[in-house]
Amino acid sequence: MEGGLRETAILHAPFFVTAPGETDILFTMVVWFVVLAVFGLGALYLSLHSLPERMAHHANHTQIQLISILTLLALFTHNNLFWLAALVIAVVQVPDFYSPIQSIADSVKAMARKKGVINDSDGSSNSVTQEASKDV
Predict the structure, then answer these.
(1) pTM over 0.90
(2) Does the structure show a pLDDT above 90 at 33?
(3) In sequence order, what DSSP letters do the residues of 8-40 get, joined into one string?
(4) Which 3 state secondary structure label does DSSP give 76?
(5) Burial of 53 (0-12, 13-18, 19+ CB in 10 A)
(6) Cα–Cα dist 54/49, whole Å
(7) Reduced 3-state DSSP string for 33-73
(8) Which of 25, 48, 63, 87 is deepest in the core (most CB within 10 A)?
């Protein structure tokens, strides 16, 4: 009776129960799954980590070196604040303040040349106080 029960139990055993000396199929599948999952998650992590740098590179951002340094610091220190700062810098475009101010300065200089306050030869201004005293 005991031999018949054992034979019946072996016939109804699940697929992952292996006989002695045979290859464990479930263990092999789990090992392959874990190895592929580790490599896949690592690739996802690294591609997500380089997101600010890729965004800055595609937008021809002026501060790409700062963004690259911040992403590397975040990668090596595991400090998410550096990555967040790099992402914010990559997304936000800093307005150009220099060009309008330079245009205003050039316009004021042209107006001063018209009035004769600035000589064209040396670019220096005559005595502005003398001009102001003439007006008073």
Answers:
(1) no
(2) yes
(3) HHHHTS-TT---TTS--HHHHHHHHHHHHHHHH
(4) helix
(5) buried
(6) 10
(7) HHHHHHHHHHHHHHHHHCHHHHHHHHCCCCCHHHHHHHHHH
(8) 87
